[in-house]
Specification:
Strand 7 and strand 8 form a beta hairpin. The protein is mainly β. It has one helix spanning 2-11; strands spanning 17-25, 30-34, 37-43, 58-64, 67-73, 89-92, 99-102, 108-111, 115-116, 119-120. The protein is elongated, with a radius of gyration of 19 Å. The protein has a 5-stranded mixed barrel. The chain has a 3-stranded antiparallel sheet with strand order 6-7-8, with no helix packed on it. The chain has a two-stranded antiparallel sheet with strand order 9-10.
Length: 121
């Protein structure tokens, strides 16, 4: 039994990824509270995308040598129609009143008030 426990302990991968609740978010600083206390986070996102998570949203935090990085948030979907199919992308604002869905068939679905170059469409 002792041997089995020690082999299991040795072979368990140590995760340096945790969940933490966003406690504050503004343009210059994101903080989250998780099992390791308070983290000051850098946001990681695909090139060209910028976002700021909502307060109390669950962040996925990756611990790195150069600091903690928020690599995304755990998504809460209240509407099953918001779930993109494979090959699709769904963007939504804080409360779901503005959405853009890039569909696998090449269509673009936009919901909300649309403004182009300052003019309502």
């Amino acid at each position: 039994m002792w041997i089995a426990k020690n082999i299991t302990k040795r072979n368990q991968a140590k995760s340096n990824c945790i969940n933490a609740a966003i406690s504050s978010a503004n343009n210059s600083e994101i903080t989250a509270v998780g099992r390791d206390g308070v983290s000051h986070l850098t946001i990681a996102a695909p090139s060209g995308i910028s976002f700021s998570p909502k307060i109390d949203e669950n962040a996925v935090v990756l611990k790195t040598e150069s600091g903690d990085v928020c690599v995304g948030t755990i998504m809460d979907r209240v509407n099953p129609n918001d779930c993109p199919l494979p090959g699709e992308l769904f963007l939504s604002n804080n409360n779901g009143t503005a959405t853009i869905k890039l569909m696998a068939d090449g269509k673009i679905e936009i919901c909300g008030d649309v403004t182009i170059n300052g003019k309502s469409v």
